[in-house]
Design goal:
about 0% strand, elongated
Length: about 170
Amino acid sequence: MDLNELTHSINTKTVISYKDRQKSIRWLAHQNDQIILDVFKLKKNHFYRLKNVETSQDIVLLDVIAFYLAIKEIVQQSVSINRKNRSKNFGFMRKISQTRAKQLRKPRLSKKREKLLNMQGIILNLIENEGYSLRNVSNYLLTYHRFSVSHTEIGKFYHSLKGAENVE
């Protein structure tokens, strides 16, 4: 299948122009993980619907079409948040408010937690190889890296890392 046939089949199945598809992908790149997860859940549903209808189509092409349709649906939900509800359909409004809430949620990592993640190798080396206590690690980070953090925060961080390693 050459490029012209591919674009034509995507255009006819999704009824989305090339520029709008690109804009939708850029929009998706700026969303949080919950919105992206919702898009992929919808993509799965769209894919199976398309697969039942279009049995002769290529599976990969159907997957791409389902992806674009899922993004289109989520974008329409987020855009319609700012419009008036003329039909007074409150079920639809509930769905919109859930989408809006997901958009506003952001992962909450404190600045210290992010710095600890950046110094993860140093902390693990000091505790496991050098035999430093959590208080000594805190003093080391203050002295050599000008980073003030409590020993309890380091302990929570270290135990969360060890818990994550045990799960894998």
